[in-house]
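Recall that a protein's primary structure is simply its ordered list of amino acids. Everything else, from secondary elements to tertiary packing, is in principle encoded there. The following example makes that idea concrete.
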Amino acid sequence: MTERAPENIGSGRQLFVDDHWIAKIDGATRRLQSPIPRESVLRGDRPWDHDSVAFLRTFQDGDRYRAWYRCDAVSAPKVMNPRWSAYAESQDGIHWEKPDLGIIEFEGSRDNNLVWMGPGANMAPFRDDNPDTPDAQRYKAVVRDKDVFAMASPDGVNWKLMQEEPVLTDRPFDSFNVPFWDAQTGRYVIYTRGVDGTGIFKGGVRWIRRATSPDFIHWSELESIETGEVPDEHLYTNSCVAYERAPNTYLMFPSRYVIEHTPDPTWPHGNGVNDIVFMSSRDGLHFDRSFKEAILRPGLDRENWHERGVYMETGILHTSSEEMSMYASDHWRYPTTRIRRYTFRTDGFVAVNAGFGGGELITHPLVFEGGELEVNYSTSAAGSLRIEVQDAEGRPIPGLAMDDCPEMFGDEIEGAITWNSGATLSDFAGKPVRLRFALKDADLFAFRFRPKGS
């Protein structure tokens, strides 16, 4: 097995979005999961958003889900820049309301859900959980014109620019630029549009850049994310999030723009077609691209088969204990423009899968806290999962060996592992161990150590 110094994970949940934990694998493989399409949740059904709804940013805020989106009304009279920002909220992530906020006048009325009409567009808000942030700036956002501007709000609906000058000027920014407070590093982070190489018309590709800031005003120099040796592909919007259920896990859902494939040569807005890919990172700069296939395809709907036909929106909502909801725009540039909900199993972006013949996975050495092992797994009726705890050298620990572990079968998000010997896992907390997973017709999504009985 590959040798590596033991890593202290405490009680943090560990996903298999990359091969970070895999020291040895036999008869099993990591498989990218596909989201399940659900209902359409937002449509362009108001005079100020009937031409498009897109670039959604959503998160849970207390007992409700909140969302901000760009809306277009290019046919509205006397409008110089029709790309506005509007607000919606929901109790369940499925049924969304567009409340009349009374903030901005549109065609003589304030009965609308608009929150920003410029300068700038493509507003990307987030709740700022920096403990040093004053309540008057509890919500922050960026908008982009040619440059990027910083915004703040006490409530998420009444917004002001934090200063008249832009905070980022190293163009291009003509996409959805995503900022957030990163609790793991104690800094603000932004992922922006960029170009990798000498420009998209000189052999380069559309790409994604990152910068960090201590105060949301002064930013580091933008640098391109790294993805290792992968094909030169155009990556457009990024939809990056820090995944809250697993520390130091950053997930990204870029729009992959394939300019050489044009399903309809008569399409008036440009060549190409796009889908959504999946990437993950443990430091926010170096991203794993082991999955080259799409996580979301345009699908059977022909109105998604054109340039920028689908975009994954930004944010992951835990709409039940078993389900995560994400959102994607489709029918872009059509009168039927809308945002659709998609669901994943909780933590279920990637599974370690073994078929009926069985397979095994052994982790690198780790140090944990707690007294109980929790796993997110699924088996068939005939399938099973068993787990062995080994010392750092790969020797089974007496009482926690594979023969001591009963076959687990079923489907659980937070299943607790026990051993027939009654051995106490907490006796090994703080000591280097390895985990050996034996799977048969089963999927393994995540594991963590937790206090016994929690």
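The chain has a mean pLDDT of 94. The chain has two domains: 7-33+350-450, 41-344.
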